[in-house]
Amino acid sequence: MSGEINHLLEFLLRQGDNTLVLGHRTSEWCGVGPALEEDIALANTALDLIGQTQLWLGYAAEVEGKNRSANDLAFLRDPYDFRNVLMMEVPNEDFGRTLMRQFLFDAFQVPWLTELQNSTNQRVSEIAAKSLKEALYHLERSRETVIALGDGTEESNKRMQATLDYLWPYTGELFGEDTTDQAMSAQGIAPVPSTLKNAWKTLVSRAFSEAYLKAPESDFAHSGGRTGFRHTEHLGHMLATMQTLQRSYPGATW
Amino acid sequence: MYAQMVKSTGKGVQPLEEMGPQDRAFQERIDRGEKIEPKDWMPDAYRKNLIRQMGQHAHSEIVGQLPEGNWITRAPTLERKANLLAKVQDEAGHGLYIYCAAETLGISRDELFEQLHSGKMKYSSIFNYPTLTWADMGAVGWLVDGAAIMNQVPLQRTSFGPYARAMVRICKEESFHQRQGYHIMIQMAKEGTADQKRMAQDAFNRFWYPALMMFGPSDKDSVHSAQSMAWKIKMNTNDELRQKFVDETVPQAEYLGLTVPDEHLKFNDETGHYDFSEPDWDEFMDVISGNGPCNTDRLEARKKAWNDGAWVREGMMAHADKKAQRKLAAE
Ligand SMILES: [Fe+2]
Ligand SMILES: [Fe+2]
Ligand SMILES: [Fe+2]
C-alpha cells in the first residue's frame, strides 16, 4: 500500500464487504430453500444486505475519491482488496450453516449498528440507523430458527451443533482491534469492535442454551479477511462468478 | 400458458336444459358473473379441473424461479442483482398465493408438490429452456412474463373467487417484471455494445417460439377448452391470446432493433393483425412429455431442494410441537 492508510475507507469497506459477501451467499439460495416461506425470507435478507452494501460502498467510493462507484468496488476489486471477515465467504453448505452464520453475524450487527448510530460521522450514523432496522428483524428470525432447529429433532440438533463447531473459530474476527479500529474510535466514528464481545457472547449464549447447543470452549480465531491479508480459497471462486460480466466486457453498461 | 392443455371432463359442454337442478343453478351463477367461493357447492369436475389448472400454474411459478435464479449470482450490477432477486422472490410469492388458493379446494401444498415431483402434474413448457446469457434475463421478463400477463389479466375475472383474487395481486407484479425485462433489453439491444446486441438478438431467437408455445396449441376445437370457458376458468382461446401477444410484441421488438426470427411475419392490412409462423408443435409435445432441454435438470433441482430441506421442515415442526406441549405442561 502506498502512502498512509485511509482508515475511514478501510472501515467503510469492512462494513460494505461484510454485507456484500453475505448478501451474495444468501442470494445463492434463490429457488432452492427448504420451503417456499424460507425462500422468500432468504431473498428478503439478501435484498436487505445488497441494499446496505450500496450505501456502504457508495460512501466508500466517495471517500476513496477515485471516481469509482459502488459497483466498481463490488465488481472490479480483486480478492485481496476485500475487507469482509472470513465467516462471510465460507460456502452455505446447508440451510443450518446459512442460518447459524446469519445469527452469529446478526448478534454482532445489532449492538454494533446501535453504537454506530451515535457516530460523529453523519453518513455513518445514517447508514447504521437504516441498516439497524433490518438487522433487528434479521436477528429475530435467525435466532428463532437456530433455536427451533437446535431444539427440533435429533438430526437437526446434531447438524446445528456441527455447524456451530465449524463456524465458531470464524467469529473471533468480528472483534478486531487494529490501527483502523483505534483510529475510528479516536475520531468517535465507531467503537473498537472488541468492546462488544461480552454483549455478543451473552446474546448468543442465551440462544444456545434454549437451543440445546454448546458453544466450543476454544477462543481460537481465524483472521485475515478484514485486513485482506489472507482470505479463504472460497472468495476467489465467489468473485469469479459474481464479477464475470463486468470483467468480461469492460466498460459495458448493463 | 402457465397452465397448458388442462384436461376437463372430455365430454363437451352440456346444455343448460339438460343439466340437473344443482348443476344448472351453478352454471347460472357463473353466467351471471358471480364468484364461486370455497364453501359453495361445486361440481366435482369443476373442482378437479381447477386443481389441475391452479396446480400447474403454481408449479410454473416456482419452477420458473430456477432459470432466472441461474443468473442472480452473476448479475452485472448491485441494482440488477437486487431487481432480479426481488423478481424471483415475487414468483415464489405467486406460487404461495396460488397454492393457498388451491388448498381451499381440499388439496394440500405437500400433495401438490408430491404430484409435481412424481411427474403427475406439469408446469409450463417455457421453464424447460435454458438461460444462457444475461440477455436471457431481459428476454424472459419481456416475453415470458409478457405472455403470462396476456393470460392472467383476463383470469382476474375467473369464476373461482380465491383464484381471481390471487390474480389481481399477481398481475400488478407481472407487469412490473415485464417492464424490468424490457429495460434490460433496451440497455443491451438499443444502447449496448456490439457484444450486448448480439446477446440480445440471440436470446430473442431462442425465446421467441417457446414464448408462442406458452399459449398451447390451437384449441378452437378442443372440448376441454370449451368446458373450461363455460366455467370461466379459461377466458380466451389460445389462438386469441397468441395473436394478441404477437401484435403487441412485434412493435416492441422493432423499437429495440431486434429481428423477429420469422421470415413469414407480416402485418396483414385486411385483418389488422400480424400473420406469423406457428411454432414447432412437435418440439412442444417433446417438451411437455419430458424431453425439453432442461426438464430433467429442473425437476431434479426441485426434488433436491425438497429433499435437502426435509430435516429443516421436520426440525421446525418438532420444535413447534414441543413448544406447544411445554406450554400445555406449564398451564
Ligand atoms: Fe409470477
Ligand atoms: Fe411469471
Ligand atoms: Fe413474473
Describe the structure.
The complex is a heterodimer of chains A (254) and B (331). Chain A has a single domain, classed as Ferritin, CATH 1.20.1260. Chain A has helices at residues 7-27, 36-64, 70-76, 95-116, 122-151, 154-171, 179-186, 197-210, 233-242, 244-248. Chain A has 254 residues and is an all-alpha fold. Chain B has 331 residues and is an all-alpha fold. Chain B has helices at 21-31, 44-63, 65-72, 78-103, 109-117, 135-155, 161-190, 194-213, 223-230, 238-256, 281-291, 295-308, 310-330; strands at 266-268, 273-275. Chain B is globular, with a radius of gyration of 21 Å. Chains A and B meet through helix 2, helix 3, helix 5, helix 6 and helix 10 of A and helix 3, helix 4, helix 7, helix 12 and helix 13 of B. Bound molecules: fe (ii) ion (3 copies). The site of one fe (ii) ion has 5 residues of chain B, from helix 4 and helix 7.
Concise account of the structure shown:
The complex is a heterodimer of chains A (254) and B (331). Chain A has 254 residues and is an all-alpha fold.
Q: Overall pLDDT of chain B, averaged?
A: 95
Order of secondary-structure elements of chain A: HHHHHHHHHH
Structural class determined from secondary elements of chain A: mainly alpha
- Estimated helix fraction of chain B: 55-70%
Which consecutive residue ranges of chain B, at least 5 long each, have pLDDT under 50?
A: none
Strand content of chain A: under 5%
Residue share in β-strands of chain B: under 5%
CATH architecture of chain A: Up-down Bundle
What is the rounded distance between the termini of chain B? 53 Å
How does the overall form of chain B come out from the CA principal axes?
Answer: globular
- The tally of strands of chain B reads 2
Question: What radius of gyration of chain A results from the CA coordinates?
Answer: 18 Å
Could you state the oligomeric state of the chains shown? heterodimer
Largest sheet of chain B: 2 strands, antiparallel
Reading off the top of the CATH hierarchy, the class of chain A is best stated as Mainly Alpha
- How many alpha or pi helices of chain B? 13
- The strand count of chain A comes to 0
Largest sheet of chain A: none
Shape of chain A from CA axes? globular
